[in-house]
């Protein structure tokens, strides 16, 4: 099994913006489950144009094969992102995070540890719809992979057609996503840095109400909510992506003022 072919898009890890070590600020940009760095590249490009160094790694098990994703744990995702954040911290005065879906969960978890000075998360699911949480721990042993139906949850048809990612879901990986959600939920109260939360109003994957739940749970003094009315789950590449990227860039600019 392999990743679905990208159609004229770059799904590889990226580094954008001022040369490494230059500039006051950097942003760690994290993609979603079964996704690739492409999901957060448009936000990174906008940040880079504002002088913020951006790094978008592929989290363990991603941009390779579904079989590899089935062999990693949520701790692997956290450890990898933590190492990336520490490397940015060693070279920059301020470090931000941008997280899409699962990347938002990873960003929130590390923010609770004090890894970031501010963060923006989009389409971040605090839970998955039933009966998924009940069935996956058992079903993963009987049916290791489940084929996706209808492509990515993106309302822009052209963006959905070119979106790279796995064609199947490794259920062991879904179970790790559930474990990550259980890990993050109790730690949201420790997130005290400025936070922007965005969500697609037409999201069929993650409950749009989770955006407000995140804001209600954190202790951040500065909080922003952006509901993207024309977008589905992967809002960072959907109809509202340019407006969201600009909002994130403005939000981080204010932290540097």
What is the fold's blueprint, element by element?
Elements: E1 3-4, E2 14-16, E3 25-30, H1 38-49, E4 53-56, H2 66-69, H3 74-89, E5 94-100, H4 102-112, E6 118-122, H5 132-142, E7 145-147, H6 157-162, E8 165-166, E9 168-170, H7 171-184, E10 195-200, H8 209-217, E11 223-228, H9 241-256
Parallel strand pairs: 3-4, 3-5, 5-6, 6-10, 10-11
Antiparallel strand pairs: 1-8, 2-4, 7-9
Describe the model:
The chain is an alpha/beta fold and 257 residues long. It has one domain (9-256): Alpha/Beta hydrolase fold, catalytic domain (Rossmann fold, 3-Layer(aba) Sandwich). It is 39% helix and 18% strand. It has a seven-stranded mixed beta sheet with strand order 2-4-3-5-6-10-11, with helices on both faces. Strands 1-8 form a two-stranded antiparallel ribbon. Strands 7-9 form a two-stranded antiparallel sheet. Helix 8 (209-217) links the parallel strand 10 (195-200) and strand 11 (223-228). Helix 3 (74-89) packs across helix 4 (102-112). The longest helix has 16 residues, at 74-89. Residues 1-6 have low confidence and may be disordered.
